[in-house]
Amino acid sequence: MIPTLYDDLSLEKQAATQQAKAWDIDTQIPWDRGVDSSKFFLPLDADALVFPGLGAAQRRTLSQYLGLVINATIAEMEGVIDLLRRPAWEDMLQKHSANPELWALGESFFAEEKKHSVAFNRFIEVFCQVEGVKLASLRRLLPQGRGSSLLAAIRMNAEAGGFAFWWLVAGVEEVSVQIYQMMHKHEKALDPLYFAVHRMHLEEEARHRSYAFLMLELAQEIPSTLKEKLIRKTDLILAQTMTAAWVLQQLSRVRVAKELRDEHPFFQELSSCLPALSKVPLWKVFHNLFTSAPYIGFVLNVRHQKQTLRYAQKFGVWRVPMPVPQMGALFTEVSG
Amino acid sequence: MTEDVKTTELRGLNTAWVERGDSKKPILLFLHGYPDSPETWGHQLEYFSHRYHVVAPFVRGAGPSEPAKDLARYGRESISLDILQLLAQVDPSGKKPMVVFGHDLGAVHAWNLAPLLGDRLKGLVVLNGLSLAAMSGRLRSLAQHRRSWYIYALQIPWVPENLIGLFPEGFLDFAHRLGGLPAKARLRLGQVENCLVHPLNQYRAFVREIPAARRQKLARLKAPLMVLWGKEDPFLVTPSAKEWQEAAQNTTIRILPAGHWVHRERPDEVNRLIERFLEKVGLEPLKEKAA
What we know:
heterodimer, A: mainly alpha, two-stranded antiparallel sheet, 15 helices
């Protein structure tokens, strides 16, 4: 239940709860237990996203790679959020008067997002240390947000008075919760540290996810010119298209595994999955990514983001039409 | 409220105010706008008079406050002088801490009065109103001009006062409807008796003062400021946080889902927020006792 923008008592209570229950990155995540590389990071669907017919070891490596991609995506997205703090948040609240609770909740939101970004990056580093993988090499395979056209477009939109940033955040927040829900059912088969990081992340996401919707609510309250009205109508379209373009571009980095295959068995195993991908027609790759692929599909297809969709309908903003998701069951070594 | 109305001669004119509560307590000074009387603060006067010394003057020409022939007596400086003399009557020591509240045109007077009160002023609360400097800063805002049409209409000599004098009830109802005030929260004509005609001269005096207000470089208010703003105000564009921060060092902004008369439309919420503000500025009587 999201409180209204003017319900100061509820918002104040929420801000106090967030502050009281905020976790500590050093002491509350069991970093010293390291990564168990015999385990999956994420359960996979029958087709392993777009890599059908893989063997057990390949599926596990792909699950770990996907897990790292998800971590890097959230870390990058949440890092980008911090970069856009001024134009998309501070300037908006300065320009349009806002109640103190909205400022306080925003401060907590940005602090938490920064912390999450650090936690996910730290997991990637622990993985590299335990596995003996070079961090710089692994980074070549993982998403990068800084300097991207996504960041530039969202910044431009915010500077023009748009709220695409908050649609993007709303989507990412919702997806993070969905990812944890998928993991939760397979907890025993997953790497405990990977699971712990996502569980801690979920806790704070669940507490602060309403913030993006509050900002979107604020957008509706602001008196705007015709130009600003048009920008706000198209904010979600911009967030959707730029995110999709960015995600697809970042996923193509998996091909770098081929170049790195002699460097480490992890890269070798990953590159051995690539022929499975090339057997799938390109249209089917795209179709699967938008409809049946877990995690990636959650980001790409707004129909997975129920609350975001509800708000889009409530505010009458335009969105890119998306196919109906057809997600099947997920498996890990143990349950599959 | 009539039993609480006091009058005295100030600067040659009979001036009236409503006064309640223990005169030893800190003062809460409530300044009304137009078309209003101290009755507009009814919910606040009732709520706070048990713990504070509440004072709400009738502005020049309103109700028992004698109208002036000279337009300058409706201007900011003259009304500030009236209020300072009134404060000297209700607090002869001149040392009691106070918080000033201003709604609508009352906010213009509150802003003007604030620097004249020195350290006695512990806080300023503004409700859907601006200082004249802030209003004059909006001369380039088309949106504000559109909302300020009535200010231009009131500049026409003779006609507005005679029309309002002929149809006071209709005028009051029109203003309340326009300001988004629900019927049950509206003041009746009897509660603003003789408050509709002469006080409109404030608009005429202010327009003449605008050039000076534009030149005037106001010092940032040192006392804490709380802004309570009904976001559906059809008369004033909601100011930005930046606009307030330039005017005061310590600002709390509260946007409420209400129209122009936020204190009448959401009295419980407004009283709760005021109570918190008074606590914040150290004007909470219970705390004083403990100290």
